[in-house]
């Protein structure tokens, strides 16, 4: 049968050759791009310059993951041990603290890039706080207790704060800890938020110093002016509590979206407000939300997160708030309250302080590009990790309810593109990817495509990428991802060698099309030799880009009528780009969606629309050299050569039968080969349709002057099984076993009269056909019946291995892939992509000639597979990871209390004192201390051995010089003396240990005595000052 198929196809040679050995094929995953699931939280470390992202549990039950990103392609990922989502992430110098939805605490070591430990706290965790430079992470439990975990010793501290609110209010049924916040300057004070209110707790005094509970009297509007409850006493539940950057004030946010500003000295309310109104705690105030025409009141969003930001001067502050706006508000985003300089606390009246929070200098919305609300955000500080990561931020990354990211400049809120600021994987969710395409680029062409434009300052500069082989492959797999906001990003998706050009190239269709809506991209075509890009839109436009230097801004004007088929777009280039992919022209006139695009390496582009129209563009003009409908590819035309250069596209095959679906093109391919009985090769265009037909066209030089080409219809080949859509068209050279694509080298061969004997491999959903175009019958092979359509081909391609041959690879709808020989179409190998490529999106997978398969593994990620694996990819990936931690950049010292705070009675607490208060006197030695003790002991032992060897050697030398050998009794006496000396040394060591213990006890007693003295002096200072 294999021999008969070869004879029927007219291919005398076995093109598969040694690739017919199934042992050469081994499918395995080699790389992942993107985020596996929806993002839940995000954190940034300005010291190490790293960004961490946590995800929810995937739809298939995969546990949440933690991704750590650095400069360029630096990326390390970790999976949670249990099926849980990531709730909290915090960088703490060498460690990354992770809390998941199952209340497990995971510590990731940035030095070793491994999970150091996983700890299950004694109860459900409802709040957590950790800081860079501290060895402790404080956990607020659902029972109201607060415990401390030692990150350095990896043990639970004996320190515990019991439920303070339940001690104050015994009638409280449930008082979980809602939030925790350490004082930004006084390490000895913590703000604990309970469901009923907030408590200021002093570690130094080991007792609460202030209780805060917000109560609305009857008639006070608050945030929810409900007529049914406005005349009652209300105590809104607490949602969040935070400190002013200097610790001068406290702000609590409540479930009704009220914000209350407190004086931490005496607990008095300075101001209450919502995002729109102030003084909402006073009776008779204005109603913040008015009812609509039907008398229905709109509700407010809850306040998801609040950050009290500061500039280089901590007294110049602003509030960044997620949530709190009415749900009917059309604009979504973050709210910024610019408070300006904080009035001096000592010299300012109560009215001045109240007005400071009631009337911000500026209030604005930082809008997000989508209608989804913001549920979390992460500020990007310039240098300091302190002040809760909100000191002098330059940007903010918002996590939307849809799982996407939105990055904005701070404080003006201008949108920032992730092209140069975020890694490739995060670009998949900024916003989500609609479709993607793969192109094999020539290495030299790709290295020359370095965009020159104005770039924002880069804040991700940490880590060091794993060193890979350099210049292993001359062909670069370049991916083009189309996003829902009309942006298209292009980058190198290589995995086996060094990525020499790791930058992302971005194309913004909204700027080119001059609109903000209707930007869905439906088709992409890109040339790997010239870099020309064609983008098809759902609205029917086709935009062409090419790589060039930009003309001076303002020197170009649009040429051509907006009503014509071609509109010049050179004047719409981004003025910030000096050299890059710039718009060339746009094809208009058809409003049906673009379903397929093929961009050749020789200056021709084929476009297929959803109404069955086919258009061929010549970029040399540019000019439209062919437009026709697929209804003209009839059997009557088979074998005739007709020019459709001026043919009308108004007719369609469904005019006779309205119930018949429109025949559209599903595959396009350019080639250079000899057709039928021609005596010369020519440029050919093959069009595969949704009914299984393949039309053949020739592109020839035209008769008119000016070098205009024309297109001639040659014939059509029909399906031999049923009318199933064409999946792929693969032209091959039957003599050399190479792809017969329309390359620049093949075009040069036409001038020299080189003939390319070619054939086509046509894969449809039901069969594969192998024939000599245009109308030869050839050979075919049916996929055969399958249960539930399991044997439906969804994607295909040809793989080549230098020196081995070529083979056909197809992937079925069941997730089973098969390798076939050429031309015999004998099955060589079967493999599976189940669980690796999303089953519902198998048709989007791309099979490259290099043997790589790229396909969507989730809605926000793409997996790279190879058919020529070694079986060691998983082990290699686990063992070799990018470097993350830089030991030369330790965290800066924590800010301390000011002179005024010291004069007012605040005691200064050092980190050593804080560690003693939290860890206790019995705190175990750290690993560094243990290693230092071992090194000291080993050094002392080596020194003792050296001294003993030196003394023995000198004695022996003296004895031998005197000619007196050492006797037996003398040797025994010497050994006895050595033993006595060692025992004496051990006794001295024990004496020194006793003295050290006594001195330690005296120091602890002395410190406690000094603390009592400081407390007394602090009280006296508070009275007099």
Task: Produce a short descriptive summary.
The protein has 1025 residues and is an alpha+beta fold. The strands form 14 sheets. Strands 30, 34, 35, 36, 37 and 38 form a 6-stranded antiparallel β-sheet that branches.
Subunit arrangement of the protein: single chain
Low-confidence stretches: 635-656, 953-969, 1019-1025
How many helices? The count is 12
Q: Which value, in Å, is the CA radius of gyration?
A: 37 Å
Tell me the strand percentage band.
35-45%
Work out the helicity level. Answer: 10-25%
User: Can you summarize the main beta sheet?
Assistant: 6 strands, antiparallel
* Overall geometry: elongated
Task: Output the structural class.
Answer: alpha+beta
**Could you tell me the mean pLDDT?**
85
End-to-end C-alpha gap:
103 Å
DSSP summary, beta strand count: 58
Task: Please characterize this protein's 3D structure.
The chain has 1025 residues and is of the alpha+beta class. The protein is 15% helix and 36% strand. The protein is built from twelve helices and 58 strands. Strands 30, 34, 35, 36, 37 and 38 form a six-stranded antiparallel sheet that branches. A five-stranded antiparallel sheet has the order 43-47-46-45-44. A four-stranded antiparallel sheet has the order 1-58-57-56.
Defining traits:
elongated, 12 helices, six-stranded antiparallel sheet, single chain, 1025 residues, alpha+beta
